[in-house]
Structures are given as structure tokens and as C-alpha cells.
From TrEMBL:
Name of the protein this chain belongs to: Protein STABILIZED1
Cellular-component GO terms for this entry: catalytic step 2 spliceosome; U4/U6 x U5 tri-snRNP complex
GO terms under biological process: gene silencing by siRNA-directed DNA methylation; positive regulation of primary miRNA processing; spliceosomal tri-snRNP complex assembly
Region span, Disordered: 1-23
InterPro entries: Syf1-like, TPR-like_helical_dom_sf
Length: 91
């Protein structure tokens, strides 16, 4: 079962990469790519993708909101006290 899941994630990553390359100014490509990595528990990859999305789509409110959501979710996951977790955006 795990192998099937890994294969599906690998295939989805290839699809998302192709989508980003063809449509680098499309905010949803970056958001979907970051969410895929988040679901795969690859928070560093999710963070790198959404940062690149912010660079490619600087006027997209959706991408910036997603970046904040990911930063907060990551801080909560890694903090011993989730109520004190801060936003690392711009760090």
C-alpha cells in the first residue's frame, strides 16, 4: 500500500512540475504543488515551492495567504507549544 502511495505522489509531483513550467504565473499551480508536498509531509519542499510562487505571482493574494497558512502550520507542527508558534515568513 505504501508503495502505491509513493508512486502516486511521484506521478503527481511530475504533473505539478510540468504545470508550473507551462504556467509559471498561474497561482493555483504553486498552491497545488505546495499542498501536495504538505500532504506528503515534506514541509521544506512545500515552503520552497510557495516561496517561489510568491516570487512568480507577487500580486496573487491567494499565494501569499497560502504562504502564511503553510508557515503557521509548520510552526505549529514543530513547536512544543503550538499556541506560541510564530510565523516564519520572510525568515
Amino acid at each position: 500500500m505504501e508503495e502505491v502511495k509513493r508512486d502516486a505522489i511521484k506521478k503527481d509531483r511530475q504533473l505539478m512540475k510540468s504545470s508550473r513550467e507551462r504556467n509559471p504565473k498561474q497561482p493555483l499551480c504553486w498552491i497545488a504543488s505546495a499542498r501536495l508536498e504538505e500532504q506528503a509531509e515534506e514541509m521544506e519542499a512545500a515552503w520552497q515551492l510557495i516561496q517561489k510562487g510568491c516570487e512568480e505571482c507577487p500580486n496573487s493574494e491567494e499565494v501569499w495567504l497560502e504562504a502564511c497558512r503553510i508557515a503557521i502550520a509548520d510552526a505549529r507542527r514543530s513547536s512544543p507549544n503550538p499556541n506560541e508558534a510564530g510565523c516564519k515568513f520572510g525568515a
